[in-house]
Amino acid sequence: ESIRSALTPIREHPAWIGAALALTFAALFAGVVRWHVLLRAMDLPTPFARTFRGFFIGQFFNAFLFGACGGDLARAVFAAHDHSEKRAEAVTSVFLDRAIGLVVTLLFGCALIRSRLRFFASHAEARPALVLMGIFLLATMAFLVLFFGRHLVDRLPWLERLQSRGRSGPLLRRAYDALFLFRQNARHLLGPALLSLANLLLLAAATAALARALDIPLAFADLLAVFPVITVLAAIPLTPGSLGVRETLYVQLLHPFGVLPGPALMLSLLGFLAATIWSLFGGLLFLRTPRPPPGK
User: Fold this and answer.
1) Is there a contact between 206 and 271 (Cβ–Cβ < 8 Å)?
2) How far apart are CA 228 and CA 251, in angstroms?
3) Are 223 and 246 within 8 A, CB to CB?
4) What pLDDT, in 10s, does the model give residues 221-249?
5) Which residues lie across from 66 on neighbouring strands?
6) Among candidates 77, 85, 92, which has minimal Cα distance to 41?
7) How many angstroms separate the CA atoms of 124 and 228, rounded?
8) Can you tell me the distance from the alpha carbon of 248 to that of 145, in angstroms, rounded to the nearest whole number?
9) pLDDT digit string, tens, across residues 80-95
10) DSSP alpha helices (H): ranges in 87-189?
């Protein structure tokens, strides 16, 4: 009954639904540009239309594979097919693209949480998410210290041994060399980082529009304080499309702001639906992608 009641206001606010769909597309488009910038920086020239197609095909698989990053596997296959002579670098571009987005979201979210740490800590339902964010922050900082410090192989000798084994060793080395480019020229990360922030803010704005459509009295600043937390934790590959994980986080993290479980649940599902609509667009692009000849 509470879920049915939560959906009632939508009929009176079609404009907010349309705004949410438009903002979601704008956020995804920022993701397309981010990946395209990385491909160019890694000397993997790709027509923008091709990058657009590959990104939205990945978005289609995101809706059905585990976690919010499952479609990255599809993107990796797509990129490797386009750059058969640099497959390791092409695959690396996909996971670097995702890593930049998650790191920016994590750091931005932790910065916002810090200003409201006591408020969230006073609510038991929010504490597990805070602990996980703290663990991820420590792991991320450790990785960044290794990445921007001296040569990673010197710090981790087992990597050097791994590079000399079988067919995967040379591929691992090429992937590391591709990442090493950004370690030497950190300025190449600035543009993708800013685009990641734009992606995050646009998705938060789309969620705020859906909150208005549901008549949820939630200030944008309050939503922005929890949205990065939800985004980071929903990336953990536990369920297809992160269904259930994301909804639990919405219910728990919006409760301190007085949002009831029914409206919080519907806000999460409507956000997933908005993303899924554009995912289906990616599915159409996938169906229209020419198949390679047999044997290739």
Assistant:
1) yes
2) 15
3) no
4) 999 999 999 999 988 888 887 889 999 99
5) 240
6) 92
7) 19
8) 33
9) 888 888 888 888 888 8
10) 87-114, 117-121, 127-148, 152-155, 157-163, 168-184
